[in-house]
Amino acid sequence: MHRRLLVVLVPLAVLLVAALGVPLSVSVAEREMQETYVDRLNDVGRFASLAETALSTGRTEALQQELARYHELYGIPVAVIDRSGTVLLGPAGAYQEAARAEPALPRIVTAALAGARPEPSGEWPPWDDSALVVAEPVGRDSEVVGAVVTISDLSKTRGRILVRWAQLAGLGLLPLIALVAVAWPVSAWVLRPVRELDAASSRISQGDLTIRADAEAGPVELRRLAETFNTMMDAVENAVQRQRAFVSDASHQLRNPLTSLRLAVESLEPHLRAAGNGRQVYDVAVDELKAMQRMLNSLQASARMESIRTASPVDLDAVLATRVDRWRALTATAGQTLAVDVPPGLRLLEPPGGLGSILDELISNALRLSDAQVVEVTARVVPGGAGAGHGDGAGAGRGGGAGAGQGDASAAGDVVTIAVRDDGQGIDASERAQALRRFWRSPRHQNVPGTGLGLAICADLVGAAGGELRLEAGLPRPDGSGDGFAAVVALPVVPRAASSSGAPAPSPD
């Protein structure tokens, strides 16, 4: 966030410095050039006055020496020429050599011989290498007998300009450096509450409703925002706690009356007549009471598990080690076969309530509801989470997927998909989305024990860990009439350096 703020501020500061510095630099260059031109103009004016006297009297030795001395001191050839352009006085060789490189010289000399003072020649920017040609007529009006011409190399002047520009650039960098030096701590002070709000929101999205933002740091506006955020979270936490407390208390308070009612109903069994409808009504009443007791147990388990909102790393091997033998015994009792194909060394983020409890629920559904012959548990790593959000029966793959999962996979964004598949009845694609809703049950399972809460609770817990529970088509049925049922849990991969996982919680059903 610091860098993004500086990316906005620094270009604006650069534009401001450039808007002020460029005109100032141009002004500095023009002033340096103007001073040089005025110096040369004063020199040729003085030489023109001396040349007029020397030519009229014929005493040119002193002027010749002075022109030579001038060239020797400053390296600037200065010559007195007649109306035909012939050099009368001055270093003729140096003048003629310099004149050949100046195409503007004939125009300036012609204007000077006509009695006018011409404008200076050439372009003056420091990146141009043209010389400065200045000419002054000798004589007045129709009595002009010649001209004094200087050809000045401006390299030194341009060097001074570049030095001045470098100084200005250095001065221009000072406010930029000061801006960065001030903006970094100021932006840290301003953005720290924003970062804390972001971190708090991230923790809250994982289910931790106890997080609060620091309302004592940052600007006044952000402190007010943090206070409002904390007030909102207090209200949300209180509402969630009241809701959970209501579910837990209501189910607990209903347990004893319901147990008493069931005992009372069951006590009527000896008094039923052998003939009549009493036995059928009695059986229906007992079944309904049992269903209500299962519902209360599920509600209490839901309240307990949803109060555990911390996701933590866990080794999938450790979870399976405590579960697989029990699953095999259950499937064997039901006359089914359990196949487990999970690569070793997978480490993932365990949902609140425990990954083992979620897998227990998925295995239980396969045993109770699918009428399957084979139940298969597979796992694989999906790099970058590719396919984690799609309902693709092959995507969470069986055997081939296992080859993709390696114990050292811990790249950011990778997910582990754990699939529980069977070759039983399955459910239609149109019913899969509804199956994750609370209390929903398939019409085919109305007479099968259950509450319709298990998958919904598992989906909520997996989502609290940043994962996803999705339903797909399962294994092909033995008779070729379609596919069974599959539940796929996708959870983030955790690097091996992460902390150890917490203990699993009670089963959601």
UniProtKB/TrEMBL annotation:
It is a multi-pass membrane protein. Its EC number is 2.7.13.3. The keyword Nucleotide-binding applies. The chain crosses the membrane at residues 165-191. PROSITE patterns: HAMP (PS50885), HIS_KIN (PS50109). Keywords: ATP-binding, Cell membrane, Hydrolase, Kinase, Magnesium, Manganese, Membrane, Nucleotide-binding, Phosphoprotein, Protein phosphatase, Stress response, Transferase, Transmembrane, Transmembrane helix, Two-component regulatory system, Virulence. It catalyses: ATP + protein L-histidine = ADP + protein N-phospho-L-histidine. InterPro entries: 2C_sensor_his_kinase, HAMP_dom, HATPase_C_sf, HATPase_dom, His_kinase_dom, HisK_dim/P_dom, HisK_dim/P_sf, Sig_transdc_His_kin-like_C. GO terms for cellular component: plasma membrane. One of its GO terms (molecular function) is ATP binding. Its main location: membrane. Gene3D superfamilies: 1.10.287.130, 6.10.340.10, Histidine kinase-like ATPase, C-terminal domain. The lineage of its organism: Bacteria, Bacillati, Actinomycetota, Actinomycetes, Streptosporangiales. It is found in: Cell membrane. Residues 249-495 form the Histidine kinase domain. Its cofactor is Mn(2+); Mg(2+). CDD domains: HAMP, HATPase, HisKA. Residues 188-241 form the HAMP domain. This is Signal transduction histidine-protein kinase/phosphatase MprB. It is an enzyme of class 2 (transferase).
